[in-house]
Amino acid sequence: MSYAFRELLRKVGSGTHTSESLTREDAAAATRMMLLQEATPAQIGAFMIAHRIRRPTGTELAGMLDAYEELGPRLQPIASAYPVTVMGVPYDGRSRTAPLSPLIALILATAKCPVIMHGGNRMPTKEGEPLIDFWRGLGVDWSQLSLTQVQHVLAATGLGFIYLPSHFPLAHGLVPYRDQIGKRPPLATMELIWSPYAGDAHVVSGFVHPPTELMFQDAIAQRGVTHFTSVKGLEGSGDLPRERTAIIGLGIPTIGFERLHLHPRDYGFEGKNVALDATPKLVKAMTTVLGGHPSEWMQSTLWSGGFYLWRCGGCPSLEAGIQEARRLLTEGLVLQKLQEIQQVATPLQLTH
């Protein structure tokens, strides 16, 4: 048993009136001891559920990110025309709506706006479809690449993916606790703003509840991140909804935080979000979009892809971003980018 961890557990688990928030240093220490399994399983489970009930603070999230930076993987800076965008999505996947982020990432990479994604396999508590399976369906199996090989693909094509089981096994070792406690632990909140990139990055995260966004703002401000985007998106992701107004937070260097409300009907995109289906069917639909064919999938992709082209600096306005996304797709340039990634990654998969 770790007596040092027990003291931290006492602070967060003492009840409504006597529990204490951890300092940034204590939160980093607690996360480090959990990642290294220096705390016992009973201690880790107790900490996760107690912290879940009390809810983490921005300072605690910052400390948890400090530990991830210390012990986790970090892709090295690459030369690029635009900052690298790190897209954080819930690791436990999707259960109602189809994910747009693989297509968004491909559009951005085509426009020379590099993207890093991260995640693992099917995961508690939702046990939804993970992004890694959609990438496999598109012919890029990030799970078969070493971290060095992912670095090579990122530098060569502008796209990379950190796969927890092989690139961050310490974090993957904590996944079973999510199932055992039956709730998302605060780690699942922190992961949305984790940036496994050693250079300056544009951090994009989805959120569901407004208090979560406030915690994000506090945490990343303490860590010196000024370029970020928070989206009240589909199932906690950064995918823009089409059935309601998109509520977006913009962190802008030298300016600060700004609130943006985007009404899809104002741009001709009001409609139903694409429903989740079997992964092979969704992958087939994705390839149809990559072929430039009109569909509801295409409309959803243009809405989100156009926004991110503008937000990531590739276009001067949202309207220009939508038009550019349409051009890149209909002219087959995004499909060419996917084929380029396949050509770079596939030989590496065979040697891993």
TrEMBL record:
It holds the Pfam family Glycos_transf_3. GO terms for cellular component: cytosol. One of its GO terms (biological process) is L-tryptophan biosynthetic process. Residues 6-70 form the Glycosyl transferase family 3 N-terminal domain. It comes from the Bacteria. SUPFAM superfamilies: Nucleoside phosphorylase/phosphoribosyltransferase catalytic domain, Nucleoside phosphorylase/phosphoribosyltransferase N-terminal domain. InterPro entries: Anthranilate_Pribosyl_Tfrase, Glycosyl_Trfase_fam3, Glycosyl_Trfase_fam3_N_dom, Glycosyl_Trfase_fam3_N_dom_sf, Nuc_phospho_transferase. Residues 98-332 form the Glycosyl transferase family domain. GO terms for molecular function: anthranilate phosphoribosyltransferase activity. Keywords: Amino-acid biosynthesis, Aromatic amino acid biosynthesis, Glycosyltransferase, Transferase. NCBIfam families: PRK07394.1 (NF005635). This is Anthranilate phosphoribosyltransferase. It comes from Stenomitos frigidus ULC18.
